[in-house]
């Protein structure tokens, strides 16, 4: 098999360039990676992968019309899909320059008119036909004619930068596949960015969601493979003892360790207030056992908003993710290190309880059977999202599974935060079966083998469609 991998962001780097997938890919007949990694960082990802060719993804600048069409497709998809999360996304206020506002208003209007499978497909064809004329598509076409890949695989289904390469592959008859990178993407995000031939998903649940929201996709084009995101959790060579982990973060081995996982500033604007509430409860003795708290911000968060609470509560252990902000403010340009992947594999094993706001980290900790308390109360008045947190994120379709299964406990007040943390400290086995059920639902296949399954799936796609 000769494969070309499209890695358009830091999440793709984490999932596919750090860990077993890249080692397996380097054993193919030929493998090439099209990426967004700055030249200065590339050697750390090339190391040990001698049979891999590395090429930067071409910059892709949309025209005003292609931008309107892309957003219109997203709004049409969200109007037709009409999940609770989609309703919130499409109804966000429009801000920015007059040009951006004009694009968004035009796209919203078009999206309302085209909110049907037929309308979405018509807009999609128009958009692809427009982009196909761009010089970037011809440059990719020339590259693929030279490399002669049997399959092209994209690590993330949403970034617009992958569209020209995908269209070039389609024009040459090269099969394409993409990975649906997160459990919420199909029910809460806009349209998949490019007309891929095949889709690799985490679970049977995700497979059913994709077929629901993309009725033009036939079942044989959707492949359940798990996710390499969690493969490091099943890699013994990465694991530290509890003693070593506590020593690395400066924690007291004799005391319980709570991990507060932050979200990004847009999704979780009250995180700094919520961890302050947690620390107040601990200092006041409302939470028993004298636990210590490790704060881990989201990789895209510079952590500045926590400065005040860290000053007031110097006992907070702080661990900034080892991700490099290559272009400050650009989510896709935050690139992870292998060290951070290993750290997270151990944090999720050794922290006694996780506290977060409707985060994917709920699933990370559930994999290691670590209890999770979800923050579900606002500190600010009025609430930043306009309605109470409980009526916001915890109504989103992807998170309803956590709520209905009972895989976490939900703190709808400061008092409930103390109650739930105390209950889990006293008995960590509470809700164990529910956590296991959540992992089985969301991931389906055994953790640790997804990279191999993805490679085998790509081999079959290359053979079948060649």
In short:
With 466 residues, this protein is α/β, with parallel strands linked by helices.
Topology, pairings included?
Elements lengths: L1 E6 L2 H8 L2 H6 L4 E6 L6 H5 L5 E5 L7 H18 L2 H7 L7 H16 L3 H15 L3 H13 L3 E4 L8 H9 L4 E4 L5 H4 L9 E4 L2 H10 L8 E3 L17 H8 L7 E5 L9 H13 L8 E5 L10 H6 L4 E2 L4 E3 L8 E3 L1 H13 L2 E4 L4 H7 L4 E4 L21 H9 L3 E3 L2 H13 L5 H12 L6 H16 L1
Parallel strand pairs: 1-2, 1-4, 2-3, 4-5, 5-6, 6-7, 8-9, 8-13, 9-10, 13-14, 14-15
Antiparallel strand pairs: 11-12
Helix pairs in contact: 4-5, 4-6, 4-7, 8-9
Describe this structure in words.
By secondary structure, this protein is α/β, with parallel strands linked by helices. The protein is 45% helix and 13% strand. It has a 7-stranded parallel beta sheet, sandwiched between helices. The chain has a 6-stranded parallel beta sheet with strand order 10-9-8-13-14-15, sandwiched between helices. The chain has a two-stranded antiparallel sheet with strand order 11-12. α4 runs antiparallel to α5 (84-90) and α8 packs across α9. The longest helix has 18 residues, at 64-81. It is globular and about 65 Å long.
Keywords for this entry:
alpha/beta; seven-stranded parallel sheet; single chain; 466 residues; six-stranded parallel sheet
Give the N-to-C terminal Cα separation. 11 Å
| Strand arrangement across the biggest beta sheet | 3-2-1-4-5-6-7
Mean pLDDT: 94
Biggest pleated sheet? 7 strands, parallel
Overall radius of gyration: 23 Å
Total beta strand runs: 15
Percentage of residues in helical conformation: 40-55%
